[in-house]
Amino acid sequence: MAKKPTIYDVAERAAVSIATVSLSFTQPHRVRESTRTLVMEAAHKLGYLPSASARGLARGKTGAIGLFSYDYFNRAGAGAARVHGDADALLPRDLFSDDANGEFRLFPLYHDEVQRGVEMECRRRGFVLMVGEGGGGRSEADINDIAGRVDGLAVFPNTFPVEVLRRIAERIPVVELADPPEETGLNRVSVENTEGMRVLTNHLIQHHGHRAITFVGPSGSPDREQRFAGYLLAMAEAGLDTQTLPAPGRDANGTLGSGVDLAADSDATIHRLSSGAALPDALVCSVDAEALLYLDALERAGVEVPGQIAVTGFDGLAAGRVNRPTLTTVRQPMIALGRAAASILIHQIANPGSEPVAKELPVELVVRESCGCG
Fold this sequence. Notes:
single chain, alpha/beta, 434 Repressor (Amino-terminal Domain), Rossmann fold, 3 domains, 6-stranded parallel β-sheet, 4-stranded parallel β-sheet, 13 helices, 14 strands, elongated, DNA binding
């Protein structure tokens, strides 16, 4: 059996140091492109592959970052996709059947885009990404399993109690992908939820002259609560009364009903609104996925958007661009959010004992057809 090529063989063939070969694989951004090309060509000709386990033993590190989310599909039975921001919010599985009337629009989801950003930054910085997922019955053992294999961990909101995350943060850096409702002492990266929703609501008030504006989904997660706060600010500044509706499938406390059909629930809500004294001028939804549900329900009820009512979302999912009407929304930089989380972790891994980092990224108002802006 032929002897496997080593890092020494690659260094000799490329006429560089062993350290340069190592950096070319683990931290390529620190090596000149011409030099890295020489190293890669030498490695290719020799058939050399770096050993992650050997590097880990040498450095006392794994060279991996973990990202913990929750399953988009219900592990207990046939699939159900989860709505961004709520670990317990499920879209009914028939949305993803072959005759689901185009609900493929919802993909890629918020989490897909954030994960892509984490992957991009890990690749750029020479780290491997390990993704862990938990179902509805997830336990601390689920997250400990991945935490024990990585150097740092990014966690989506509402995935685990803060006490669990603090225990993990005693061993490895942890970053939360949201602003928690209370100070946790952990690293975090979030977006301008409050300001973004204030700007969107002001657009409806000042540009379109709307006065009866109803906010959908004020409860359920820190992101939703912050967006609700932005709506309240804009309405107070304009001297307007506030109105709220639960998100589809939820009660006034934000609790999701068991086995709820979100499409049927949104239909029932629109029927109640349209059969009353008057529809509101606009529905301001806390996430795009719910805005799309209401747009469909309004179309089934024969209510014109934006002619009779405006509808807006928040997130900037690709679905909003292909929907008819196209969805006015606040686009958060989902890929940049993932990259920032990975960057924070990599910095904390290299600088143990550093103070926690809190980063807030800007958002962008995107005006389209559903608010009346062609």
